[in-house]
Write a structure and sequence with these properties.
Length: 370
């Protein structure tokens, strides 16, 4: 069924929220300088080549040989510093192959990373993703140090709504439960009943046992959920700046060029895109679909780096790349990860007053999946 209602800040007499812009990184603090380890050598040497050869073998079909000598010294240094700092690296599926395959300890979509964050034994988590993901790890592990290599790695969805907006929605629709996409700030998570991801959004909505829910902030995920359930969905006017750029016309051109090509799309895409897809699912579900179906050629309608990561594993599947890059995910680089571990910089903090309610909404989602 279609969305029941669609709301945004303008419905409450408020201006649209600005999408997070590029702010300058903060300079190193005195404390960060004091706890710094020596910066490792970043020279390309026979020792570095030998130590990283098994890792380059994983990505050699997506990273040209001419580029690896510039990446390998960082890879070796990061993997050594992780042990020295008692750190684990969590990386989202949208990270570039040299991060995803060569330095990460745990990879996955937002749901997988949230679940795995509850199991981390190390004292330090380095979150290779965007800021709301690092906040989620901190919410679930308030006693651990959580670092993000670049705190400017934001999200158009997370910046589209605030906790105050959720309170206004509750006033307008008293008694209606609120489901927040995990792509939201801790401030929003603290105001809602339960979180969801694109992997489990339909399951979460139907678990509430009501005939009407509020879903924030992704209007396209909400439209997808509305098409999959009889529950009436009241949605917010947020959108992912990567997925909203895809169009149904674009996909039809791929089909005309090759009728046998398989198209798989993320539910953050507009409905006309999903209508053209052979499969719709979260990043984890998309990866599993490709690994299970093993199509000859596939178009992945999501952030471009994920196709590279899948291509590195499935070398006989041709990835057709309609390349929309997430500018926020691309702020995370090997150099910044190394910087985080050397200086323990850009530590993520969450207001203690909202940690408990935010954790409840995330844990309620995780417990539902468990």
């Amino acid at each position: 069924m279609p969305l029941a209602e669609l709301y945004g800040p303008e419905n409450f007499g408020l201006p649209p929220h600005a999408r997070q812009g590029a702010l300058a990184r903060a300079p190193l603090s005195v404390a960060e300088k004091a706890r710094a380890l020596p910066m490792p050598s970043l020279d390309w040497t026979p020792e570095v080549e030998a130590a990283t050869a098994h890792l380059y073998a994983k990505v050699q079909n997506v990273i040209p040989p001419v580029e690896w000598p510039f990446m390998a010294p960082y890879v070796k240094a990061i993997n050594e510093l992780k042990r020295e700092r008692d750190a684990v690296i969590l990386a989202h599926n949208y990270q570039t192959p040299e991060i995803f395959h060569c330095v990460s300890d745990i990879v996955g979509d937002s749901l997988q990373l949230a679940i795995e964050a509850t199991k981390v034994k190390a004292s330090t988590i380095v979150q290779c993703g965007v800021h709301f993901m690092a906040e989620t790890s901190k919410i679930l592990n308030p006693e651990k140090r959580v670092l993000i290599p670049d705190s400017r790695a934001g999200c158009s969805l997370a910046s589209s709504i605030t906790g105050a907006d959720v309170r206004l929605l509750r006033e307008k629709f008293p008694g209606v439960p609120v489901v927040a996409y995990v792509n939201t700030s801790a401030d929003v998570k603290a105001e809602v009943d339960i979180c969801c991801t694109s992997s489990n959004a339909v399951q979460v909505v139907e678990s509430l046992g009501v005939d009407r829910v509020i879903m924030v902030p992704d209007q396209y995920l909400a439209k997808y959920v509305a098409s999959q359930t009889k529950v009436k969905i009241i949605a917010w006017k947020g959108a992912c700046e990567v997925h909203e750029r895809f169009t149904g016309d674009e996909l039809r051109l791929y089909r005309e060029a090759d009728p046998s090509v398989k198209i798989i799309a993320h539910p953050e895409c507009p409905p006309d895109v999903l209508a053209e897809a052979d499969f719709t699912g979260s990043t984890a579900h998309m990866i599993n679909w490709v690994k299970t179906k093993h199509p000859k050629r596939v178009v992945m309608i999501t952030e471009c780096s994920m196709a590279d990561n899948v291509q590195a594993e499935l070398r006989d599947v041709e990835m057709v790349r309609p390349c929309n890059l997430c500018p926020h995910m691309k702020r995370i680089t090997l150099a910044k990860i190394l910087d985080s571990l050397v200086y323990l910089r850009e530590e993520v903090t969450v207001d203690p007053a909202i940690v408990a309610p935010a954790r409840r909404s995330v844990e309620r989602m995780i417990n539902l999946n468990n």
